[in-house]
Amino acid sequence: xxxxxxxxIGKSPDRSEAxxxxxxxxxxxxxxxxxxxxxxxxxxxxxxxxxxxxxxVSAAKALPGVKAVxxxxxxxxxxxxxxxxxxxxxxxxxxxxxxxxxxxxATDERIAEEAVSLIKVEYEVLPSVQTIDEALEAxxxxxxxxxxxxxxxxxxxxxxxxxxxxxxKTVRGDVExxxxxxxxxxxxxxxxxxxxxTPLETHAAIxxxxxxxxxxxxxxxAQSPFAVRQLMAKSFGIAESDIQVIIPYVGGGFGGxxxxxxxxxxxxxxxxxxxxxxxxxxxxxxxxxxxPTRAAMRGRIKTGVTKDGKITAMKVxxxxxxxxxxxxGVNVGKTAIYSGAGAYEIPNVEIHSRTLYTNKVFSTAxxxxxxxxxxxxxxxxxxxxxxxxxxxxxxFRMINILGPGxxxxxxxxxxxxxxxxxxCLKAVAREINWTGYQSxxxxxxxxxxxKVRGKGLAxxxxxxxxxxxxxxxxxxxxDGDGKVKVMIGAIDIGQGANxxxxxxAAEVLDIPLENVEVVWESDTxxxxxxxxxxxxxxxxxxxxxxxxxxxxxxxxxKEVAAQVFRCDVSKLSHGxxxxxxxxxxxxxxxxxxxxxxxxxxxxxxxxxxxxxxxTYIADGLxxxxxxxxxxxxxxxxxxxxxxxxxxVDLETGDVHILKIASAFDLGQAINKKMxxxxxxxxxxQGIGSALSEGLKFNAEGKLLNPTFTDYKIPSAKDIPDExxxxxxxxxxxxxxxxxxxxxxxxxxxxxxxxxxxxxxxLGINFHKLPLNPENIALAIxxxxxx
Amino acid sequence: xxxxxVKTNCFEYIDSQMPPVPLELNVNGESIYELIxxxxxxxxxxxxSLKLFGTKEGCREGECGACTVIMNGRAxxxxxxxxxxxxxxxxxxxxxxxxxxxxSILQQEFIKEDGLQCGFCTPGMLMSAKALLDRNPNPTVDxxxxxxxxxxxxxxxxxxxxxxxLSAAKREREALSNx
Amino acid sequence: xxSKFDYYKPVSLEKATEYLNENSETKILxxxxxLLISLQKNKERCKHILDIKAIPELNRFTYTxxxxxxxxxAITVNQISEEKLLREKYPAISQGADALGxxxxxxxxxxxxxxxxxxPGADLAAPLLVYDAKVHIASSEGIRATDLCDFFTGxxxxxxxxxxxxxxxxxxxxxxxxxxxxLRKSRIKGADLCNVAIALRINPENxxxxxxxxxxxxxxxxxxLERKIAERELTPELGDWLAAEIKxxxxxxxxxxxSSPEYRYLxxxxxxxxxxxxxxxxxxx
Lengths: 786, 179, 285
Hints:
The complex is a heterotrimer. Chain A has 19 helices and 33 strands. By secondary structure, chain A is α+β, with helices and mostly antiparallel strands. In chain A, strands 3-8-1-16-13-14-15-24 form an 8-stranded mixed β-sheet, sandwiched between helices. Chain A has a 5-stranded mixed β-sheet with strand order 11-19-18-17-12, with helices on both faces. Chain C folds into 3 domains: 6-51, Uridine Diphospho-n-acetylenolpyruvylglucosamine Reductase, domain 2; 56-171, Uridine Diphospho-n-acetylenolpyruvylglucosamine Reductase, domain 3 (2-Layer Sandwich), CATH 3.30.465.10; 179-280, Enolase-like, domain 1. The longest helix of chain C has 20 residues, at 261-280. Chain C has helices at 13-22, 35-40, 77-82, 84-89, 91-99, 103-106, 111-117, 125-130, 223-230, 238-245, 261-280, and strands at residues 6-8, 26-29, 48-51, 61-64, 68-72, 134-139, 142-147, 152-154, 157-158, 165-171, 179-186, 194-202, 208-213, 220-221.
């Protein structure tokens, strides 16, 4: 199909659910009430690591209106995505400040809150693991039973008697030999703090657990209903099919709602209340304190280069301060070994990625997980190496950049169909008029004005981090009026997936957009399976499944029409809502006429209800080799680049972003307006990570900024003067209409590009995030005194 | 213990056991009279008593703006106001923006400019925007930013929201001068 | 919220002070933008809420030639922002009002509440301090006035006794040519608490007044520094001296999560210099 002939692909129709959202009618779990519903509140540990000596819940239980009080004794279940390591309610020991130690269900929130205040817990405070080095020392084990924990074998590698939840490696070539032969070796240590997702809707779940059977019904603000079902079934030892998960509108996810969180606790409370529905809506403070974050990370990197700028070797240790439970953390760590060398060809590589247990709030997936973090290390390192070599960092990147025929660190050979990182880098360099670093003299002239401009570049790549067997599906049903209803198992959490799926179905079926509805309120009892709504895989995998379902529907309609027209199916085509004979176009039948079988005048009927079915499974992916990291982890790479032009106030350290240009090779835009929305939003979220965000803990592991008052995300006044989205469309041969995912990518490398531009402006290399006014101003002051 | 057999609605806000106080006010043009708990916030009154769930709870500390409503013509954080403080007040919530089944220009522009993604900040954002356009029909970009700086959005990057407000302002001015 | 309280909204000052006298564990409610947070987080508890917004004296917002402004305790920060004459005469106060919280919070928050909450970084404190504002306090014993510079006693602490009710703040009139500026530094450009706040004022006799916020346990007027400045000529060159000198008057918290003391020292100097330059360039207004 020639892309210029598309009716809906690449256009910008309005978001299909916008009407509900602008009128306040879109109901989120926050807004749900059910008959007989009870409200849950939890008591949290004030200590990072402590023994629970005793819990007295008698006063709480005696409070009128309280229907259940649960402690760890009542919840003998472990839950986990990859490491089965987390209790639903802490028992015997607490592992982070904020961990749930008791929970209450009561007739209203106020009573539940009062009941929680009446629970008395005696703790014996224990020394805790707070830093990456303490975790590696392993004098204290966060999980004393680490050797016995159940985990996903062959993919993750927990280390005996340690705090290492998984140690993943890539070893390719001989780095030590290559370093010896290098013209220059550059070493750096980089760091970034833990960060919060801060969806505007905090986590919320309602559970209705039948006390007389295993059946549990859940309404959740989750990204991945089928994962909730699977993980809960495993934890409780019941059948997946006994659990129903319904997802209404979700008020933002960003990965923080990808796993399983409040659902099991709500279910246990419901069960304890004879099946009355129990709603647990996290407070904003719980969202920071109790619910997971993005891990802090330290990267120690060593790069060897030839004199003319070819990278010969790279060795990196990525150490993730991943908190008390593994959750997605081990998978975040795993991305580093296939993605954590950046979009470059490097012959000799050693990457060690260690996901560490510490006594802090645990970490999970966060938009493009692992990538913003590793790219903070890689893309800053690229600039720092270029500086030492005296090469323009643009040229240095171009010398080493991946492209057709080149090999990734996992051994995958890139093809034309993979997309072009160099097109992205070229586009942003052009957009910001990149001409290389400014000279010290040029900086000096600007310094007199009190403000200095700086420009920077950074590259990025990402592929979905998912199991090799990941699959998804779509079902399309059609009504007598020819309108179709598309069902997918993935969730539109605001990224616009349902609108994109609607465009794809309309395009393939060739019917007006208004005749396609993607069904909202995903329900595991009705919608077809999807692995998880994560990893920017929905457009690619879901899109392919919808195409297949639509084609299946057309095929079925043609088969009936062929009988009616007494012709071979191959003589039939479709368009404008009709199946027609290619040579006698007046012989046509509307989809509506075929939807429920075709009826002749005498009453005879043929065919039947038309239901399109499409499934898509990742093909050809492999687990990565334990020792070498070799394998095929990536279904689809999406490349991108940022270029930034900014200004720094030399006295206050304020950064003002004048322009940031962001290019992504997304193969084919499905909905331009929404892709630009993803880019604008993702870039600003990246700016938040770069300039202002980060969790702060005291020495005892208490989170000091669990509120919007002190965890500052960008406001409308903090946006750049200009964000320029650039869509590059080198199609992916097996993508839907050639498309690739791009939902997460805009955030990646934003801190790096700002760090690089700060070097250009100030001549100072920053190694730690955030690049807030304080850190910049103090660095400038130190630089000038030194 | 749980009263499994109880079939009545148990989900109403059970108050603080203080004597209830009468509250009279006008919400979206409708006169309301209720006996309420004096410790109830305006946010809870709208959501729990009136079942107007459009107004969202995002932080309960006046930092996120999701609960913004218009009270006597001014955008206010309903999480930091006691319901009883709204005695005699005129309140407009997101549910009061459209008239006679027709979206307001502001709502239409939010759709057109895609000034929303997950939609959770949208009701509060719309109320801040409406309050701005009501007091200043021709705002500058900086005035728009100032008016919505207390409404956090984690999805859009704000640009599409700012564009929506500016184009709504333009359309409203045109509608006035033509009408 | 665990507090259980009744609610009383008197229409006279006497009734209010009487109520305060008779009911301990009463919290005074004006804007509520601090009180409702601490009540909902159970950081404070109370049994009674006294809403003071219907008391006529507390709704006074008047200017009298020669006497200046009286701003009642029920007057919101946005009402202050919107007052054109006040902006002309007392720009630092308007700028402080503009900087506080978010727009919707400013529609509820009151100036007096901002002062009574006694946060070291209260945005309206430094501007009021440079104008020699007075706090008017009512109790069952009558009404008294105190200088704002004597009002703060510590972090979130004031001279107020439990049965006191602040009715408003008066600000002496200024002559033509009086100029001022308020500058602050926050972590982001959007609604945020300040790390450092400074108000500077020059009166027509070229006397400079300076007050600081967020760099000590209380907002403070720097009388001693003002005396030193009075011995010097107000020139742009004084900026560097001021930037260095002012640092000796501050004592930022060592354990703040909002800012290190080093940064507060640095920024106090930067803002002092910038403020001075703005004023002597006659850009303060």
